[in-house]
Automatic annotation (TrEMBL):
Residues 1-22 form the signal peptide. InterPro entries: RNase_T2-like, RNase_T2-like_sf. Pfam families: Ribonuclease_T2. It comes from Caligus clemensi (Sea louse). This is Ribonuclease Oy. It comes from the Eukaryota. Keywords: Signal. PANTHER family: RIBONUCLEASE T2. The lineage of its organism: Eukaryota, Metazoa, Ecdysozoa, Arthropoda, Crustacea.
């Protein structure tokens, strides 16, 4: 991938967490994956996939949650560990303002509630075996607290990396990696924008 036309991409952080017991560690590692996404990049990717796809882009320019997944070395990201487990509507309504701000859907057809319920069924059901995430509120609050803790907007701004300018992938990756005291695995996914012939 060329380094010269990079604006903002999506980040995946492999977070080492200290709340998996030895008993649980046979099923899940002590890692979680927190994906950050830049809504404009995600929307561009979504619309390029199909001309009928339509987006809702939040009015603010900030990183939002792209996913929060338990990680297992034997199957990587487990999915749908319990299809009978559903997110609590009551809890989703309680924390809706925070989710709208920090975990919005960009898909105009399905909307936010559908996104949150799908995420919980796919990933929250697999995080359920971890004490810190064994109900709807703990799962979503856990993701929200980590978005605040690993604030990419601030991390990048502190290193003079701001929206609208062009940066190399290496510069962005190094800025993020060097921001953490503990070793952190950082991944980056960029979207090729057909119209500008650059990565966003």
């Amino acid at each position: 991938m060329t380094p010269k036309l990079l604006k903002f991409c999506s980040f995946i952080l492999l977070l080492t967490s200290g709340f998996v017991s030895a008993k649980q560690s046979g099923h899940f590692s002590n890692h979680l994956i927190l994906a950050h996404r830049w809504p404009v990049s995600e929307c561009t990717d979504w619309m390029q996939r199909n001309v009928s796809n339509a987006c809702i882009i939040p009015p603010y320019r900030d990183w939002v949650i792209g996913g929060f997944w338990p990680y297992r070395y034997d199957v990587n990201k487990p999915l749908y560990c319990n299809r009978s487990m559903h997110a609590s509507d009551k809890v989703l309504n309680e924390i809706k303002p925070s989710l709208l701000l920090n975990w919005p859907s960009i898909d105009k057809r399905t909307g936010n509630l559908s996104l949150w319920k799908d995420e919980y069924l796919a990933h929250g059901s697999c995080a359920y075996s971890l004490d810190n995430f064994n109900d709807t509120k703990k799962y979503f609050k856990g993701a929200l607290s980590r978005l605040t803790k690993y604030n990419l907007t601030q991390i990048l701004a502190d290193r003079k990396i701001v929206p609208g300018a062009h940066y190399s992938i290496n510069k962005i990756l190094e800025a993020v990696k060097n921001s953490f005291n503990n070793p952190m695995e950082v991944g980056i996914k960029c979207i090729y924008h057909e119209a500008t012939k650059g990565y966003i």
